[in-house]
Amino acid sequence: MKKILKGLVKYLALTVLLACFLPLSLQRVQADEDEVEYSLPSYVGHLSIHDDGNATFTQEVTYDFDSDYKGQYVTLGKIGGYSIMDDPKVSATVNGKEKTDITVEKTDSYDGVKLKVYNSGSDGDRVVLKVTWQIQQLLNLYSDIAVLNWFPISDWDKGFGQVDFTVDGLDASQGELYAHTGYFGKDPQVKRTATGYQVHVDNLPSSGKLELHAYWPMTSALRENNQAYLLHKTNEAEFFKKERDIKKSKENYRRIFYVILPLVILSFVLIGIFCYLIVLYSTRTPSFPRAARLYEAPQDLAPLVLAKNVYNQSFDKTGLKEETGPLKFKYMVQATILDLIDRGYLTFRREGDSNILTRIEKEGLSSFEGAFLDMLFDGRMEIRDSEMFSRYYLDKDALEKQFKSARTSYERETIRSQGKRVKYQFSNDGYQVAKGVEKEEFALGLPKIYRDFSAKEKTFNILGVAALALSMMLCILSTLFLFAAFGSGLGFYYILGLLPIAGLTVLFWFLVKRRRQRCLDATQISTYYQWHSFKNMIQSIPSFKESELESVILWNRILVYATLYGQAKKVSDVLKRYNIHLSNPSLDEFTYSATPFIMLNNVNYLESYVSASDTVSSFSINSNSGSGGFGGGGFSGGGGGGGGGAF
C-alpha cells in the first residue's frame, strides 16, 4: 500500500505539471525572437446586406505597436458556402495619416482568403487597417425567412479592447439579431437601430469568437435573385428553438463550471482535509513538559540501538537519506565510536598532529558493532582519523573530470560503475549493521514503542488521498475540456485552483509519511518520555549550577548520548570548565585533548563518500554539446471566421 500511495503521489505530481503546461501549448505563441509586440484596442465592423442577399463587409482594425513591424494580415473564412468576390479593398492610416505605399499579398484557399499587408513601421505607431470585402450567398434562404449565421471574428492572435459591429440592410423593423461570444464569454450588447443593429463587446480575448445569428422575413427580391439557393421549407420556428437551446446550454454550462464543479471540488478537498486531520490527530505525539529532566539514562543502550528503538531510525536508511528523523547520521556514527571507546573496544591516543584509533579484541562485542568496526577499519587494527571508512573513498572531482573527457560510452559506464560499487558496498555493509541492531533489540527484549497505522487510520488515509486526487483530476479534466472544447480562459482559474490542492496533497503525504514512521504505541509512551526527559537534561547541562552537576553520574555515558544528540561540544566544555574527569582514561584523554572534535568531524567523510558515490553513479552527459487561421463552426452552427495579426 505504501508503494501504491507513493507512486500515486508521483503520478499526480507529473499530472499537475502536465495540466499546468499543456494549456500553454494550446495557445498560439510565436517563438521567433523577432516577434512583433502590439495590442488591438479597437475593432469596428460593418456588414451591409443588399436586397439580392449579397453583402459588403468592412472591418477597421486599430493596431498599437510596441516594436518595429513589417506589416499586418487579416483572414476571412469561406466555411459555410460563402463566396468572396473580387479583390478586397485595403487602406491603412499610420498615426492619422493615410499611407499609400502599401503592398497587399493575397492568398486564396478552400478555407478562405488571407491578405498580407506590407506596411512597415516602428515602435509607437498606431495603424488603422481598413478592409472592404464583397461576399456572396451570406444568407441561408428559406421559404419564410432569410437567416444570417456567421462569425466575422474568430482567430485573431491578440484580444480586442472593444468591438463595435453594425449590421444593416433588408427590413430593419422586422426580424431579430442575436450575438454570441461562446458559452463562457461576456454577453454582447445588441441594440436595434433604424437601419439595423449595433453590437458591442468589451475585452474580447485572443481567438475569441463573435457570432451573429439573425433573421429577416423573406422578400420577393431575395426569392427572385436566389432561386438556385432557396430551401423550400420554413425555418422561423427552428431559428427560435436554436436560440432557446443556446440560452439553455449556456446557462447549464455556466452553472456546471461556475457553481457545481467548484462546489464538488471544494467538497472533495474538505473531505480530504478532514480525513487527513483525523489520521494526524489519531497518531499525534503527546506533548511532554519542556522542563522535564532525567539525570541518568533510562537504559544503557548502544547509540544505534537507541536510535532504532526510540527514534525508529535505521543506520543504513539514514545514511542513504531514505529516511529522516531527529538524529543526524554523523552523530549516530560519532556516538558509536565514543561508545566503543568507553566500553574498551577502541582506544584513542594522539601522536604528534595525528589522532590514532586502535581496535581492541575482546569478548562481548555485538554483531552489529563488529560490522560497524569492519566499516570503520576496513580490516586493519589501527588507523589515523583521516583513514576512517577508507573503503568508501571516492575522488568525485577527479572522476568527474575523467567522465567529461571520456570518449566512449564504455569509458563513461566504467566511471559510473565505481560510484555504483561504493554505493552498493555501503548499502550492503549498512544493511548488515541495521540487521544486527534489530537482532540486538530482540536479544535485549526491548519492546517496540512504535506501531503501524490501525485499520481505521489506514482507511481515512486512503480516503484522504482519494478525495484530493479526485479533486485534482476534476480540475485537470475541466481545464483540458474548457481549452479543447471551448478555448475558454476559464481553464486558467481551474489551474489556479489545482495548484493549492496539489500543494495540500504533497504536504499531507509528507506529514503522514513522517507520522507513519513515528507513530507511538500508547502503551510505550513512558519509554519515549523518559528518553525525552533525558535529552532535555543533556541540552540543559551548559546552564547547570555546580550543585546540579554533582547530581550527574556516569559522565562517560552522558558524553556518548550527548554526542548522539549533537550536544558533545557543549558537554565537553562543561567537563573542562569544572575539571570533571572521566573514568575511562582513553575517553578522558580524548575529551581533554586540544582539538577532540576534529577527529569526530572526520566521520563526515563517510557521509561525503556515500553522497559522492550516488553522484558518480548517476553522471550524465550535458545534452547541450501567428498564423491567424480561419476558425471552425460557431455554436449556433454558423460558418465564416475571421482572424489576423501582425508581422
TrEMBL record:
InterPro entries: DUF2207 (IPR018702), YciQ-like_C (IPR048389). Pfam families: DUF2207, DUF2207_C. The chain crosses the membrane at residues 256-281, 460-486, 492-512. It comes from the Bacteria. Residues 40-216 form the DUF2207 domain. Keywords: Membrane, Signal, Transmembrane, Transmembrane helix. Residues 295-573 form the Predicted membrane protein YciQ-like C-terminal domain. Residues 1-31 form the signal peptide. This is DUF2207 domain-containing protein. It comes from Streptococcus salivarius. The lineage of its organism: Bacteria, Bacillati, Bacillota, Bacilli, Lactobacillales.
